[in-house]
Amino acid sequence: MIRRPHDETDRGMSIALTHILTIGITTILIAMLLMAGSTMLDTETERSTRTSLETVGERLAGEIDNVDRIANDSEEASVTLVADHPRRVANSRYSVALLEDCSGDEAPLIDSGSCIELSAHNTDVTVHVPLVTESELDTDASVSGGSIEIAYENDGSGDRHITLKEVDR
């Protein structure tokens, strides 16, 4: 039998090379799986935030409509309603603002008119909910999520409007 001088060393290299390639490929696959899972988690968090803000916005629109209806049906000087909403949605604080004109790029699905803008602080999610009222809105009012006071009041100059205020509870 004729022996070649490099036969024994080639055989040992083959096993070590196979192990290194297997470990390398496994590491790459696990890293890709973790990155895909992280992206999916971010997408689901954003979707959950959007859905929660829409729910809070719809409830708030109904409560503002109730205050508007009561104020326009009665001769009372002011109407106040305190509404309890979650302080956080999807582990993010949020703010609520009233807007008079919600057309254009800001709220593309709303043709025109007033709306409620809800913006999450930790994620880049902003939701606009349409709002129809007979009364004027105080567009300078912006409040954080939680207990919100919806007030129909006289501003001192004879103008009556709906405003939002934060309530500590």
How many strands, which pairing sense, and closed or not: the largest β-sheet? 5 strands, antiparallel
Amino- and carboxy-terminal Cα gap:
93 Å
- The string of secondary-structure elements, in order, is HEEEEEEEEE
Low-pLDDT stretches are none
How many structural domains in the coordinates?
1
Give the proportion of residues in helices. 25-40%
User: How many H/I helical runs?
Assistant: 1
Report what the structure shows:
By secondary structure, the protein is an alpha+beta fold. It has one domain. It is 40% helix and 29% strand. It has 1 helix and 9 strands. It has one helix at residues 7-73; strands spanning 79-84, 88-89, 92-99, 114-120, 126-131, 136-137, 142-144, 147-154, 160-166. The strands form 2 sheets. Strands 2, 3, 4, 5 and 7 form a 5-stranded antiparallel sheet that branches. The protein has a 4-stranded mixed sheet with strand order 1-8-9-6, with helices on one face. The chain is rod-shaped and about 115 Å long. InterPro entries: DUF7266. Keywords: Membrane, Transmembrane, Transmembrane helix. The chain crosses the membrane at residues 12-36.
